[in-house]
Amino acid sequence: MTSFRPAPAWLADAVFYQIYPQSFADSNGDGIGDFDGITAHLDHLAWLGVNTVWLNPCFVSPFGDAGYDVADYLDVAPRYGSSDDLARLVDEAGRHGIRVLLDLVAGHTSDQHPWFRAAMDDPADDRYIWAPEGSPDGFVPSPGTRPGAYLPNFFAFQPALNFGYGRTHPAEPWRGPVDSEGPRANRAELRRVMDHWLGLGLSGFRVDMAASLVKDDPGKKETAAIWTELRHWLDGTHPDAVLLSEWGEPEVSVPAGFHADFFLQFGGPTDGLALRSLWSNGEGTVNEAWDPLDCFFDAEGRGSPRPFVEAWRGAASTLGEDGFIALPTSNHDFSRLNCGPRTAGQLPAAFAFQLTWPTLPAIYYGDEIGMRHLPGLPGKEGSVLGPRYNRAGSRTPMQWDAGPNAGFSTAPADRLYLPLDPSPDRPTVAAQLADDTSLLHLVRRLIALRAGTPELGPGGSVEVVHAGYPFVYVRGGRYLVVVNPRREQASCRYDGAEGGRPLEATGIRIDAGTISARGFGYGIFELA
Ligand code: NOJ
Ligand code: CA
Fold first, then answer.
1. Right CATH number for 9-107+179-451 from 3.20.20.80, 2.40.128.600, 3.40.50.1100, 2.40.10.340?
2. Is 103 in the pocket of ligand 1 (CB under 6 A)?
3. Closest by CA position to 319, among listed 1, 81, 96, 50
4. Which CATH number fits domain 462-526: 1.20.1250.20, 2.60.40.1180, 3.40.50.2000, 1.10.645.10?
């Protein structure tokens, strides 16, 4: 493996919190969340114990894809406030012991970006990938005076930046080499964008579609080379910053240069098995396109933690000490924890698992109070990707309190970015703060336990005792974790658990070599 500077020390202790800025807190009553809204809630995030926030894109954008269509990488979208407001957020967050990461959309821009506006009228421009008339499938006809068509990266309005092709061919001139002028200019731009934000005190980036840069790139070799080059640059100029990839294949992305990669609903040879065994799509059933497996966190108990454990083991052994795997509760692209085959009753066990497994936990805003995934919402800013894939359901406004609009905004309800969960018993931060037995308090205690117990972090060993219902493992030779996400009671044999001191436990009995877990029970014990 290429040798990089070790990841900044703070990363091993990171507990990520993902904020979808549109939906977190609206400070000026226009119905859309903003920077000042986030700043106003930093006390709460610090109380919860999360220490690294990542924000979905907050840059100038026509918002065809909720900001993943960037029209200016160096300026923020006015709907979130000004650059000064972002600077204040970052500064205040720092005072609260919280780092902030932005989202780097590296593979494409908006078709409204000045680079693309220029390219569509300039046949010599090579910042994007253009093919002549009659070009191959997937290209989109030029909207400008330039003839031919361009290659999109996701939606048609997101033209792929040109980082070249892994395999060139003389008969297909659009397959430019990775070291030609356009790709070189784009690589330099990525550095410029990173340098700009890191210079303002940001702590790094979550990198969108990080695997997508070089086209037709067998083994992702050339794409990896780009990230390796960027990591070396980062090691030299911003050694305290981190790059966290949306790649889904840590065994490839971390050796390429990322400090960490997410286990996702897609990716690589494991094809997202790790998460597919845990989480499903948002429309009430398991996503057939992605998820032929039963979900481990299924109340009926049809799944197994084994696909997850195996995918994790494979990736973790490749990574060694060189980087981390991040495990999200959910995100803005797939279902919340509380949806589909799962029920709110399972969430404590899910967090007990997530916050004691040797990955870096990433909590998606609202999952810590068990916000529900709302099926069937109208599409909003590119949220609908197909009849069975609507992302709006996991992007609804944060539920703060019992006030109007759940404390999210003072705008009229029909002006909110997305509708709120309409149910009268929707969970809120305020109600859960007032109740020591709530999920929110449990998540806070689990984060604190992890922070105070290095064995529970990514560096501690893990020995899997029972990969079934219940899922049982020992961290650092000293901490026994029992998780039963199914409704039914479950038990297994284990001789080493007698006399363990419960640090956090509900519904677990350890007796005469048997661990019994009530339905949805979980526990963390310090072994004698
Ligand atoms: C992945 C992002 O998470 C998703 O929300 C977006 O639509 C695509 N990349 C395109 O940028
Ligand atoms: Ca606002």
1. 3.20.20.80
2. no
3. 1
4. 2.60.40.1180
Q: How far apart are CA 392 and CA 380, in angstroms?
A: 7
Structure tokens at 227: 């990230």
Calpha distance 105→73 (Å, rounded): 9
| Nearest residue to 382 (alpha-carbon basis) of 22, 27, 136, 19 | 22
H or E element at residue 518: strand 514-526
Specify the residue with its C-alpha closest to ligand 1, atom 5: 333
In the predicted structure, residue 255 carries a pLDDT above the cut 70:
yes
Decide: 381 in ligand 1 pocket, CB within 6 A. no
pTM: 0.96
- Whole-number Å distance, alpha carbon 31 to ligand 2 midpoint, is 6
**What is the per-residue pLDDT across 224-250, written as a single tens digit (0 to 9) for each?**
999 999 999 999 999 999 999 999 999
Domain boundaries of the chain, sorted by first residue: 9-107+179-451, 109-160, 462-526
**Nearest residue (CA) to ligand 1, atom 2:** 208
Structure token pair of residue 325: 């795997």
Residues with CB under 5 A from ligand 2 (ion): 26, 28, 30, 32, 34
- Measured in Å, residue 100 CA sits from the centre of ligand 2 at 19
Mutate to test the pocket of ligand 1, among 154, 244, 334 (most ligand atoms within 8 A of CB): 154
To test the ligand 1 pocket, which listed residue (68, 104, 264) has its Cβ within 8 A of the most ligand atoms? 68
Decide: 36 in ligand 1 pocket, CB within 6 A.
no
161 lines ligand 1 (CB under 6 A): no
Tell which residue, 253, 350, 257, 336, has the closest CA to residue 297: 350
Alpha carbon distance 245, 231 (integer Å): 12
**pLDDT tens track for 395-428:** 999 999 999 999 999 999 999 999 999 999 999 9
Residue 69, ligand 1, Cβ within 6 A: no
At residue 286, the pLDDT reads 36
